[in-house]
Amino acid sequence: MPVTDDFDTADFYDCRDSETLTCESVTETIEGWLDGFLAPGCDTSAIIREGGPIEVTAFRRTVIPDPEIKHAAEDAAERAEEILAEEYADPDGDGSIFPKEARAVLEESIAAALRVAMKTADIWACQKCGKRTYSVEEVEKMMRDENPDWWDEESRA
Q1: What is d(CA 78, CA 85) in angstroms, rounded to the nearest whole number?
Q2: How far apart (Å, rounded) are the C-alpha atoms in residues 59 and 25?
Q3: Where are the alpha helices (DSSP H) in the chain?
Q4: pLDDT tens sequence across 50-59
Q5: pTM metric for this prediction
Q6: How many angstroms separate the CA atoms of 82 and 89, rounded?
């Protein structure tokens, strides 16, 4: 079984320093980069050679650290208590309606719900997790396998 690293298991790949990440494979990002240079009748191999080796950066979606989830849960519990206290708390009291122990249970329950929700969250923020440089020969082989029509004169006319 081949050994993989963070690069091989990344969520996104980019070779252009894009503002948003959409390419989910090395081939896709190199294809997108090259496609911007291709024109009818061009010499695809020459364009790949001119581009030289291509450096691809891998990105992984950021995992939200548990302390941030706990902080969000504390804020949510506090806000919920404020909303409920406006209507239901002792107007002469301190504004709280939950005993300290109940507040702690509420915060942990919200944190648990957030952890479950985070498993399906669409996290936009990403972290770099690796780089690889692909030689001209590797790029040409990838593109010939993926886009053989780029070398077909009739298709490129």
Answers
A1: 10
A2: 11
A3: 26-35, 44-51, 66-88, 100-118, 136-146, 153-156
A4: 988 999 999 9
A5: 0.74
A6: 9
